[in-house]
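QA checklist item 7 of 12: single-chain prediction sanity check.
[x] sequence parsed
[x] length recorded as 391
[x] structure emitted
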Amino acid sequence: MDRAVLAVTVALAAAGLAVILTQSPAARLSSDFTINYSAGVLLRQGHLAAPYDQAELGAMMRRVAPDGAIDPRLPFSLPLAAALPYAVLSLLPFEVAFRLCQLLSAALLLVAVLLLMRAAPTLPSPARGGGKYLGLAVLGVLAAVPTWGAFTEGQPTAWLLLGAAMMVLALRSDSPALAAGAGMLLAVKPQYLPVYLTILFAARRWRSLGAAATGGAIVLLSPLAGGAGGLSAMVHNALSANQAVAIRLNESWIGVIGAALPTRAATMVAIALYLAVLLALCWLAWRRLPSLIAFATLAGALAVLASPHSLPHDLLILAVPVWLAIVLYRQGALPNPMPALLAIDLAVLIDLRGTDIPLGPIVMTAVVAWYGWQFRQRAAQQRRPPIGRAA
């Protein structure tokens, strides 16, 4: 099984590198990077409110990607602070900026893996002869289909993964500076921040919780730099994201059930599902948990499944709960998660080819339910006294 899993992982990583390196110029122009690059140009020119003005953003997108390479109706829905790195990249020609963005994302992914190895050191660190484990971890990230999407779309998904890894590291060292940085990175896609704050809440890391919330608030309020209407414009664009992109492309629960609902109703249902899951996680975090790692694993998985908007590249943030699941496996609390991870990867790959109903969230839900049941069973067996001692 180990050899078969390794062979499939290597094949997926090689396929991913081929997809990334052979992407056509037309595909790069039609990617999300064009939206963010255009918002960065407007920001660099001093038009702080323009990224949320669809007329101005669309006009800039047509200049960056002429001949209808991208739909100018696609909105910029990130906080204004997220456009700052793209403003710097916009000093470069589009093609050069796109490749530099990919290199920076690769560096952030490596840093995130190193932080996870430090946060949950069940394997030797690279400094102590664990270099091969670092190589396997990087190979696993490259084999993940969401990594392909993050690199080919030029999305800031690597920022989210780094922020989530920093949040987990804050569980070991109650560092407000580390937590504040994690909160700022996770606030780039605001739906993920509250879920990871519940992990700090469950750990009773009050200083880190306050710092992460403050850092996230700074990023979330950054649209106000463009005027009083900036924040409402960002929220409007975020809520209309499922109208600009087919809702079935979401790798979350709303992608499965949204196809049967009108667009406006689907948005409201997605928000209701998200809030219900967030409240449930807060309730669990309030209780004294038998395993903080298990809670963080569950919360990280539900952050994606319950997200109102979660495209395939967003699933890269699942690398954090995946890592924690491997930690639980090495502790004997879970079965080997690798076969299940490959099943999820295959489901997402099928979804990218176009399906009426996304398979990814269905498989992920089944995996979460199965491993949750396994965790409870094994925990009950550990609490049960041996027969001889009971007698």
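[x] summary fact logged: The longest helix spans residues 94-119.
[ ] second reviewer sign-off
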